[in-house]
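# step 3/5: fold
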Amino acid sequence: MIGRGVRHQLAISASLAAFIVESALGVSAAWAATPQPAGSTPSPIAKMVCATKAATEIDEVLGEKASVSNPTWKNHLYSCDYRFKSGTMVLSVKELSSASQTSAYFDGLAQRLHKSLTIYGLSHSEGAFRTEDGSVVVRKDYKVLVVDVSGLPRHFGEPETGLDEVSLTVAGVIMGCWNGD
């Protein structure tokens, strides 16, 4: 049986390995699809962040069990809370209709949320950054994912890790779901 800390490290390693392989081979099949504009209802991809599969994988890599709130959909923002015993993490996906809208939204979040570090190599992403509170923001096609860990204690998970690692691990799980992993 693989320990929780090892699973956590494997999740990060798998994301980085996938990025290296895709870089060597060229554009992946998942990236080849034409991005779809925001619609009147959330896309299946946006819904993945609150789905049972993602919740199960997140629980597994963090070593903590969460209850997931009923998702909300307002102004093309799909969101849910992951409620753990010691705090809450919020996952949200903003759906946009063009590359320029996505860039403007992503760049606006970088300023509003106080970008502290650009993240390179997050598998299947088209840009990512960390915020001062340890949260992670990722863009992919016409979607922007926010993994907001500001409601969690400074050290979280089993084994305990810092919020920077928690948010990056969760972003990696979601990007894997979006790619069909």
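# step 4/5: annotate
Residues 4-178 form one domain.
# step 5/5: archive (pending)
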